[in-house]
Design goal:
With about 160 residues, the chain is mainly β. The protein is built from one helix and ten strands, in the order αββββββββββ. The strands form two sheets. Strands 5-7-3-1-9 form a five-stranded mixed sheet, with no helix packed on it. Strands 2-10-8-4-6 form a five-stranded mixed sheet, with no helix packed on it. The longest helix is centred in the N-terminal third of the chain and has 20 residues.
């Protein structure tokens, strides 16, 4: 009788454990799609003032597979120490990029040019900022800080 009671007790404990682990308060995985720009997990980079180089700055999509095109609009803000055509050239034209279904990163390409009249006391930054998209996806990392919504490139001596 005691053996049978132990078996019933063990079964009751197992069933109770299984049933108590299932409930309305289960956590669902975090799955908020977002678009961000970074390079080696950083939100900034430098380029030498004498560089003659083409650099790619990728915009990334973190999402489940999309079934339609995602158009992302961005803007470039140029500091007063840089001039387009003198310090850099935009290889990627326009201010929007399209992510086709299955594509998760699209680059913005910039050709950096040597500067003969570089002034280190001026604002020698070029900022790429994500502005909007056609699917209402979060711009930058999810959260109140909006990290990786901007990428700042500084030309340095």
């Amino acid at each position: 009788m005691i053996k049978q009671y132990n078996v019933y007790l063990i079964c009751a404990v197992v069933v109770t454990t299984i049933l108590s682990s299932c409930g309305k308060q289960e956590l669902r995985p975090y799955d908020q799609p977002f678009i961000h720009i970074m390079n080696n997990e950083a939100s900034s980079a430098t380029v030498n003032y004498q560089a003659l180089d083409v650099k790619s700055y990728s915009i990334y999509l973190s999402s489940a597979p999309l079934t339609q095109n995602l158009e992302v609009t961005y803007q470039l803000t140029i500091g007063d120490g840089l001039k387009e055509g003198v310090d850099f050239e935009r290889i990627t034209k326009g201010n929007s990029l399209v992510f086709l279904p299955g594509i998760y990163d699209v680059p913005i390409r910039i050709r950096w040019l040597p500067s003969e009249h570089f002034d280190p006391d001026k604002d020698n930054t070029l900022t790429i900022e994500l502005v909007s998209n056609n699917l209402g996806i979060t711009m930058g990392l999810p959260g109140p800080d909006g990290l990786q919504k901007k990428f700042v490139i500084t030309k340095v001596k």
